[in-house]
Amino acid sequence: MSSNLDQLYRQVIMDHYKNPRNKGQLADDAVTINMNNPTCGDRIQLHLKVDDGKISDAKFDGEGCSISLASASMMTQTVKGLSVEDAVKLAHVFYNMMLGKDYDDTSFDLGDIEALQGVSKFPARIKCATLAWKAMEKGVGHQEEE
Questions:
Q1: Torsion sign over Cα 30, 64, 40, 13
Q2: Can you give the residue range of the structural domain that contains 93?
């Protein structure tokens, strides 16, 4: 059963990599965050629109490995419509999952994000998976300061 689940997860990751959701840019009033992972060359430009404490839109552009870009696709899809507070909480749930720690999968519908849980077995790839999430946290932190 485990190998079937691994195969399914790989298919979900490759689908997000080959058919990214929310790829592109947002208008001028969006917050733009540029981040990269110098270890492997992944880079992402994340665009967030935050209205009244909620992430109303999110898009990304960049280049990198399948894990990095699939994670960005999943993250933008999942945080749209969430409050900034919930988006940050979800990021911490995701980080715990990446570190192989217990994580709360009842507060949020993780959906496709759970396909990334296998990355925790490959410590060198965790930074790839968390890059977009770190950019989102930085972006909403920047938004709150203004």
A1: positive
A2: 2-145
CATH number at residue 137: 3.90.1010.10
pLDDT tens digits, 39-75 = 889 999 999 999 999 999 999 999 999 999 999 999 9
* DSSP state, residue 20: -
Q: In what order do the strands lie in the sheet with 31-37?
A: 31-37, 42-51, 54-63
Would you state the torsion angle of the CA atoms of residues 74, 61, 125, 14, taken in this order, to the nearest 10 degrees?
Answer: 50
* CB contact at 8 A, 127 and 28: no
What's the total number of domains in the chain? 1
**How far is residue 60's CA from residue 133's CA, in Å, rounded to a whole number?**
11
CB atoms near residue 20 (< 10 Å): 20
Average of per-residue pLDDT across 32-37: 95
